[in-house]
Amino acid sequence: MSRTDVTGTTSVRFSVTTGDGLVLAARSYGDPGAPTVLCVHGYPDDSLVWEGVVTDLAADHRVVVYDVRGAGASPAPRERSGYALDRLADDMARVAAAASPDRPVHLLAHDWGSLAAWHTVTEERHARLFASYTSVSGPCLDHAAHWLRSRLRPSPRALAEVADEALRSAYIGFFHLPWVPEFAWLTGIGGAAVRALERVGPPKGRPPRDKRSLRNHLNGLELYRVNMRDRLLRPQPRRTAVPVQVLAPTHELFMVESLQASAAQWCEDFRLRRVAGGHWVPRTRPGAVAGRVREMVADVEKGRPRSAAAAGAGAW
């Protein structure tokens, strides 16, 4: 079914059924014959966070977005285990296969979408579905655990980085508390606290303004509760041959840049690009994100991906 939505671009709605029977809501934009870019949102967003990126990229690409399980127009799993990374990766692979059955897609993901996307492209059975991966503000949890362990040595710089990251990630422990985070979102206290910290772009604690937004906030807490502890305590060596581009916002609040850059050791083809802005650059600077993705797609489609040494120091 075709319609013109909030991006002002004509979209085609479709759905994808997950392995455990959920029906995920998806939309596609642009020329079906152009390279496909699959966008995966994070927490507490839904696919609407990609509005600006879609408007830009759909001019010369096919762009596909979907609401992950428990967010937007997609149903939530009945059990907490339904938010496990293995489930999210399988969902992503199914959407990619449905969106582009004849050629791999180019993956773009943000926040928890990036965490799940890392899990997907480092799974051999899924990696063939993806031509490239652009990650924004979301590391692989296994890579993050290895990074943390590498910094636990008697070096002032290493220990300072760990302390810095621990401070930035303190909200994760808060999200594991029973009922307290839910109370914070319902009352707006959580949104006010994070707004005081995040000065660039919509904050992670933006107060829910409607039922859909509130549902995103509450359901997505399970992502932290299901996945963080086991991955950080028992990390695996997750590698990928999919070309990877990490976009590191210059004013990222929730992670240090060296954590994001450390993924290079797990990738055959890796590049790090700085982007001026905060955690929500897909919303606040969609043109910059779209521009970097457009470059990545062009490189891969022409068969000349760059090496890790090509990581750029300048920020758009």
UniProtKB/TrEMBL annotation:
<protein>
    <submittedName>
        <fullName>Alpha/beta fold hydrolase</fullName>
    </submittedName>
</protein>
<dbReference type="InterPro" id="IPR000639">
    <property type="entry name" value="Epox_hydrolase-like"/>
</dbReference>
<dbReference type="GO" id="GO:0016787">
    <property type="term" value="F:hydrolase activity"/>
</dbReference>
<dbReference type="InterPro" id="IPR029058">
    <property type="entry name" value="AB_hydrolase_fold"/>
</dbReference>
<dbReference type="InterPro" id="IPR000073">
    <property type="entry name" value="AB_hydrolase_1"/>
</dbReference>
<keyword id="KW-0378">Hydrolase</keyword>
<feature type="domain" description="AB hydrolase-1">
    <location>
        <begin position="35"/>
        <end position="281"/>
    </location>
</feature>
<dbReference type="Pfam" id="PF00561">
    <property type="entry name" value="Abhydrolase_1"/>
</dbReference>
